[in-house]
Design a protein that fits this description.
About 50% of the residues lie in helices and about 0% in strands. It has a two-stranded antiparallel ribbon. The longest helix is centred in the C-terminal third of the chain and has 21 residues.
Length: about 500
């Protein structure tokens, strides 16, 4: 059992306290130190600089008068609060349990750091002015806040953080104090643009809240709904919660300069069909780096505490619009009967033209009554006037162009751009096939979609649908979703070629 334990400073990393304890005791052997702390011979107690393990064993080895707990160490002296804030309570509890009791697994894997493209610092970092002020009081120590991924400036002194010469990534290292051997007071010249400091200090406000003030956890589904609500307020999502992705990417890149995103390990490749930003706000089970959550908060002009204090979110929703007549039926009936009376020889088509809006309203809201009082087309029509085909050709060309745009815009499985589909979209009958519509049919032939292009469009649609659903992308799943049956090797190769353009492994 240990005889004493040093007073732990605010925000001090647990390994920093161990290093100070070792220096006070004058221990040279690292094995003897870990045996003293953790009663462990074969494996080290800490396992990680940021996520120490076997803390319950350490607590049981403290003097009986100690009131320190494993949970207090985890919440106040490790990086647990930052890396689990955006995880479900179940997952974060599993991480806490692994740190308290030790399970032989890497905590970095549990919190999603191992496969993330956002990497932590390689060395312990510190603020040179904080270090100087500490040393004037007697000793310094390793703080948590400088170790946050993306932390560039000290929130208190606004100086750039510096790398020490103590590696984070090697758990075999000795326990080293923050002193003259590992740190110095030299302030780094800040050569970054002024907006770097402005953006990063705001980033650090949210990071500080998560580390020091927040004890809640939010699962990914809740977070995505929260984001959709905020994007809806910004006009970047529809009332139903569908994202206007092109505008979202455009505004995000207008908010953050390209060079700042590079520093923050979050560059957005607009040529990549599934860059991290496009899939970030979609509901799937992929890990998101806390750094990118904080970047997204800042873009939305949201403080981190708003996410953790709000109790209800909406996200996507079904919008039901009920049509309610703004006129009374009796009034409209009187108007229609008056119209019939004033035009005794008019048939239905002529009455429709005379009272356009009135006819539409009556027909949609009171059809049975309309049929009972409106004259049928009993009068024999005269010979139809000759058609001005040149004029009709121009009119049909406009309709065809609009129909093609509409076919491309339609939700659901893509429809191939074919002459018959264009005609159906327009709502035209057989006269549309007349050869006198020269310009119209020239446009339709030029626009008709090749089978290869249509297949590629269907494949891309299927991939986007699978990503939206959070499914893992495989050739077979895409083939099934797109509706390609059989074992056509040509189609499989095309799916694989398009899949290679997607980066859907890490966000």
């Amino acid at each position: 059992m240990m005889n004493f334990w040093p007073l732990m400073y605010e925000d001090e990393l647990f390994v920093s306290v161990i290093a100070r304890y070792q220096r006070i005791c004058g221990m040279v052997s690292k094995r003897a130190l870990e045996m003293d702390l953790f009663q462990i011979y074969k494996r080290m107690g800490r396992k990680s600089v940021l996520f120490p393990q076997n803390l319950n064993t350490f607590i049981s080895n403290l003097p009986p008068t100690s009131r320190l707990s494993a949970e207090e160490i985890i919440l106040n002296h490790t990086m647990y609060p930052f890396f689990t804030a955006f995880m479900s309570s179940e997952k974060s509890d599993a991480v806490l349990n692994a740190m308290a009791n030790g399970n032989g697994k890497s905590i970095e894997n549990l919190v999603g750091m191992a496969g993330s493209k956002v990497k932590t610092n390689s060395y312990l970092r510190y603020c040179p002015l904080c270090f100087k002020l500490d040393m004037e009081k007697g000793e310094s120590y390793w703080r948590r806040l400088p170790q946050v991924p993306g932390a560039m400036y000290c929130p208190e002194h606004h100086f750039l953080y510096k790398d020490s010469n103590v590696l984070i990534t090697d758990c075999r290292n000795d326990y080293l104090c923050a002193d003259e051997d590992t740190c110095n007071e030299e302030i780094i010249a800040d050569e970054y643009p002024e907006y770097f400091r402005t953006l990063n200090l705001k980033y650090m406000e949210n990071a500080s809240y998560i580390i020091f003030d927040n004890q809640k956890r939010r699962n990914l589904s809740f977070i995505i709904k929260f984001y959709i609500d905020k994007l809806r307020e910004r006009g970047l999502a529809s009332s139903a919660g569908n994202l206007y992705m092109e505008r979202l990417v455009e505004e995000f890149l207008r908010f953050y300069p390209k060079d700042y995103l590079e520093i923050m390990q979050s560059s957005v490749d607009i040529e990549q069909e599934a860059n991290w930003l496009r899939v970030f706000v979609r509901n799937n089970n992929k890990n998101r780096s806390p750094l990118r959550h904080l970047l997204f908060f800042q873009f939305l002009n949201v403080n981190a505490q708003e996410l953790f204090k709000i109790e209800k979110v909406v996200g996507k929703q079904t919008i039901i619009r009920e049509r309610t007549p703004i006129y009374s039926i009796q009034e409209r009936r009187k108007e229609w009967l008056k119209l019939i009376e004033d035009n005794p020889n008019a048939n239905r088509s002529e009455l429709k033209q005379i009272g356009k809006g009135l006819h539409t309203w009556i027909y949609m809201n009171d059809k049975d009554w309309y049929d009972s009082v409106t004259p049928k087309n009993n009068i024999r029509k005269g010979r139809a006037k000759s058609v001005d085909w040149e004029k009709r050709d121009l009119e049909c060309l406009i309709l065809a162009k609009e129909a093609v745009k509409e076919l491309y815009r339609k939700e659901g499985k893509p429809i191939r751009i074919l002459p018959n589909n264009i005609r159906k979209e327009i709502g035209a009958k057989r006269w549309f096939n007349n050869k006198k519509l020269v310009k119209t049919w020239r446009y339709i032939k030029e626009t008709t979609e090749k089978i290869e292009d249509y297949r590629a469009r269907k494949i891309k649609w299927a991939i986007e649908e699978l990503i939206e659903a959070g499914d893992r992308l495989t050739v077979y799943k895409v083939q099934l979703k797109a509706g390609f049956g059989g074992s056509n090797m040509e189609i499989k190769l095309e799916i694989k070629r398009i899949l290679d353009k997607y980066d859907n492994t890490d966000y």
